[in-house]
Amino acid sequence: MAYVNDYQPPPPAKPAYGLHGPIPYDINVAFPLDFAQLKTPRLKLVPFIPSIHAARYHAAISDPAHFYRYYSFSGLEDPETYLLSIDAFIRQNPYNILFAIIDRTTPDPDYPEWGGKLAGTIGLLDYSQTNLSVEIGAMCVLPTFQRTHVATHAVGTLLKYCFTMPCASESESGLGLRRVHWNTHSCNEPSRRLAVRLGLKREGTLRWACVHPGKTDLLAGSGRDTIIMAMTWEDWEDGAREIVKTQMARVE
Fold first, then answer.
1. Does residue 143 have a pLDDT over 80?
2. What is the per-residue burial (b if ≥16 Cβ within 10 Å, else e) of 149-174?
3. d(Cα 202, Cα 66) in Å, to the nearest integer?
4. pLDDT at residue 214 above 80?
5. H or E element: which one contains 37?
6. 188: nearest Cα among 137, 144, 148, 153
7. Nearest CA to 35 among 151, 115, 107?
8. pLDDT recorded at residue 167
9. How remote is the C-alpha of 231 from its chain's centroid?
10. Is 178 helix (H, G, I), strand (E, B) or coil?
11. Which residues lie below 8 Å from residue 31, measured CB to CB, with a gap of 6+?
C-alpha cells in the first residue's frame, strides 16, 4: 500500500496585532480578578501590558541568559521572542494571567502614574474552576529587587487571594480555591526556599520534566527535574495563613 507523509512543521505564528498585543489590550481572563485585593502597602499587582511595561522590564535585565537560566522555554533572552511567548502561552489562554509587580516603596519619576517602580512579573496559570486549583508561576523578580520584600509580598498576596472565599467580607474577597501549586527547577534553590518559607509543602520531583534543547541538537540538551510544591485549603486553615502573614510582616 503506497502512502506519503507531507507533514511540514508550521512556521512560528506571529499575531496580526503585533508584539504588544491587541489595542486596547485584552487580558482575556476567564476567572474573577479583584485588583483591590492584589496589593499591600508595599506592592501591587496589575496586568502586565507589553506596550506599557515591556521596555522597562527588558532594560532592567543586564544578563538575560543568567536571568532566565531556570526557565524551560528557549529564546526568552530575546525581547521579541519573550513577547510572542507570553502572548501565545499566557494571554491567549483564558486560564492564565501575567501580572506586573509594582514596588510601591520605590517611586519611578519617569512613570509616576504607576504608583511605584516595576519590580518583575508573576502569574496565575492553569486555573481550574472544576478542581478549584491554580499554579503560581512566571515569577521573574528583576535583579534590583531580588532579596527584598518583593517576592514574599507578591507570592503572599496571591496565596491570600487564592484561598480567601468569594465575598468573605466587605473588604476581602478571593477565588476560594482548594489547591495552589508551584513548580520550580530542581537547581533553583532560592525559589524552593521561598516556597517553603511561605508554607508550601514539597510533594515530589518530576524527573526529566522537559529537555532543554542544545544549540543544534535536541539530544544534546540537558534535562530539567521539576520540584512540585503545593498548598491546600487545609494547609491554609491549619496555620499557613498565619505563616504568610508573619513572613509578609517580617519584610515590611
1. yes
2. bbbbbbbbbbbbbbbbeeeeeeeebb
3. 26
4. no
5. none
6. 137
7. 115
8. 80
9. 16
10. coil
11. 95, 127, 129, 175
User: Nearest CA to 249 among 45, 36, 105, 42?
Assistant: 42
- Which residue type, as a one-letter code, is found at position 210? C
Which residues are bridge partners to 118 per DSSP?
A: 102
Q: Which of 128, 123, 111, 107 is nearest to 51 (CA)?
A: 111
| Nearest in space to 53 (alpha carbons), one of 120, 141, 109 | 120
Cβ pair 163, 233 in contact under 8 A: yes
Which grid cell sits at 158? 496571591
Residue that has been written with the C-alpha cell 478542581 in this structure: 131
Angle formed by the axes of helices 241-250 and 150-163, nearest 10°: 150
CA–CA distance, 28 with 7 (Å, rounded to integer): 32
Q: How far apart are CA 169 and CA 53, in angstroms?
A: 33
- In tens, the pLDDT along 2-50 reads 999 999 988 767 788 989 999 999 999 999 999 999 999 999 999 999 9
The pTM of the full predicted model, rounded to 2 decimals, is 0.92
**Pairing between strand 43-47 and 97-103?**
antiparallel
Q: What are phi and psi of 160, to 5 degrees?
A: -60, -45
Computed over every residue of the chain, the mean pLDDT equals: 93
Tell me how long the chain is: 252
Residue with the three cell numbers 483591590: 36
Residue 91, C-alpha cell as written in the block: 494571554
